Amino acid sequence: MTFKKIIGKLHLWLGLISGVLVVFLGITGCLLAFEKEIRNLTESYQFVEKQDKPYLPPSQLKAIALKHLDGRPVVGLEYGSPGKAAFAAYYDTVAYTIVAMNPYTGEVLKVRDMTKDFFRIVLKGHFYLWLPPAIGRPIVGSATLVFLIMLISGIVLWWPKNKAAIKQRFSIKWNAKWRRVNYDLHNVLGFYMSWIGIFLAITGLVWAFDWFADATYYTTSGGKKRPPHEHPVSNPKIPGNTDQVADELWAAHLANMSEKESITVFYPFTETDPLEMGVNHRPGTYYKVDYYHYDRYSGEELPATGSYAGGFDEASVADKLVRMNYDIHVGAILGLPGKFLAFFGSLIAASLPVTGFLLWRGRRKKQAKSQVAVGKVILQPVL
Questions:
Q1: Comparing C-alpha atoms, which of 344, 221, 361 is closest to residue 336?
Q2: pTM of the prediction?
Q3: Pairwise CA distance, residues 279 & 308, whole Å
């Protein structure tokens, strides 16, 4: 067998094995691409009337939110730009509840169980197939790895043999029979989306497999190991009030922020956990955040390790890529144009197993008809 025939067989059987999962991941990826925009249109409680007065401090909004969390603590409290609601949240491996409030008045706008949220459900399906993460994560990761191999093998199969074939590889012959149109859809659209799909697949594999995340970090850092995310420790022997410290640090950060930025206060779980602040310089994305850790009693800034420690601009290239992974995956890193690329890339990815299956079935039928025709000729009596 020639090299291209071997690649063709590999491409075919991997496609038949992983096709259903690739379709599912493509469709759910389409839904997640415009999550922020859809939420802005459908969730009116995210917005408040801008007022010419200061926000209520975190301690006051936290006290209000606690009344709606059924005895659970506030884990994070986010203030958006002027005109946006403030959000208090509790979350663990099972529960996730948010309380939306007017940051100027403390009025509760919405209490929502996010485990029943549509996009949250889609995200869990996209990541884990709604299975326990230990089971679903490697299944999705394996399908994504197969998809990456198929993209590479597809490019090899698509590559034209000569100059005469180049034009055909870049255009769809819409006026041809449906089998030819299907062939062109699979080959031409597959080629165009493959360059987007490679980024989608790689960023997906970073979540799916620790070994892949470690290898990616090793490559992009020039041979360094991926550092563990370790929080510094607060000193419980120092007298101090965590809520008061949080209010003071929040006010200090807020004074140096622009109206386009947002800030989140992450409260400690235990008596030795630090108090954390996250200043997002580009709300609507997750990567461009500066993380600060403080002693919860004294307010002293504490050093932290890991990719999510310190300022984004000061982070290494490898650590920046770790932070950017989700926003690259959904296209948000490039703004609205990037989301359109991710959306259409995911949509075409979902279509490829379908058009590929139709190609395979059509060829099988054609081969079967040819064998029947040959059989009839052989069985005809010689006169």
A1: 344
A2: 0.87
A3: 12
